[in-house]
Amino acid sequence: MNSMGATVFFAGSDRSWLAEIEPHLNSDPRIVEIPSHTKDFRGLYDPSEPSCVIVDLGKEGTVFHRELAREALPVPVILVCPADDAWACCWAMNRGMAACVKKPFEIPLLAELVDEAIESDRRRCLLDRRRRGVQRRLDSLTAREREVMRKLLHGASPKRIAADLGIGAQTVAKHRSRGLEKLRVDNEFELIHLLLEHEIDPRKVWDSEPFR
């Protein structure tokens, strides 16, 4: 895929309206028809690029939809349901699907929902890329620098940290200074702001598996 180029994946048997929707899309995505099994979809899907999935709940689409619902993929999903299938729409919204459209539908309405889903996913992709950049900075710290910075973020004073780690106050100050330099912030407050801005919990930043 081209950098940040959008893709609309389609699963289902009713392809009659696919050509009609393209002129109405402001996001100018490419449309890719996918097989009815998620293992094939995963080979086409790139979570680092904005996309969405339209699932037509016919025979093929229902199989794909059930499999996709079990996957932990961040891609927005739009369901196209038969007019008499209110249960499917309710189920979809409860499962966090992006939208549910009943047949017959207006092409411009579906196009608007697709554009909104892609824009939402584009924001997610940008945030993920920035978070990875922040994570690389976090990973660059030595084990001792991480321990000092972790304790500082938990509110410990340099004096307390020195006592806990069995090192001198000047050594704590050096680890703090080098840590802040690698993280490209001037103080702990800027570090907390950086982490929160990228949806990283300052209390757990070095307590769990890093974001990838």
CATH uppermost class of the largest domain: Alpha Beta
CATH architecture of the largest domain: 3-Layer(aba) Sandwich
The best one-word shape is elongated
Number of domains: 2
Strand content: 5-15%
Find the CATH superfamily of the largest domain. Answer: Response regulator
Pairing-aware structural class of the strands and helices?
A: alpha/beta
Number of strands: 5
Our Rg estimate from Cα atoms comes to 23 Å
Q: Whole-number average pLDDT?
A: 84
Largest sheet descriptor: 5 strands, parallel
The amount of helix comes to 40-55%
Count of helical segments?
9
Question: Topology as H/E string?
Answer: EHEHEHEHEHHHHH
Q: The CATH topology of the largest domain, please?
A: Rossmann fold
Distance between the termini: 20 Å
Q: Can you list the strand order of the major beta sheet?
A: 2-1-3-4-5
- Residue windows where pLDDT falls under 50 for at least 5 positions: none
Structure description:
This protein is of the alpha/beta class and 212 residues long. The chain has two domains: 123 residues, Response regulator (Rossmann fold); 58 residues, Winged helix-like DNA-binding domain superfamily/Winged helix DNA-binding domain (Arc Repressor Mutant, subunit A, Orthogonal Bundle), CATH 1.10.10.10. Helices cover 51% and strands 11% of the residues. The chain has nine helices and five strands; from the N terminus they run βαβαβαβαβααααα. It has a five-stranded parallel sheet. Strand 1, helix 1 and strand 2 form a beta-alpha-beta unit. The chain is elongated, with a radius of gyration of 23 Å. The model has no long low-confidence stretch (mean pLDDT 84).
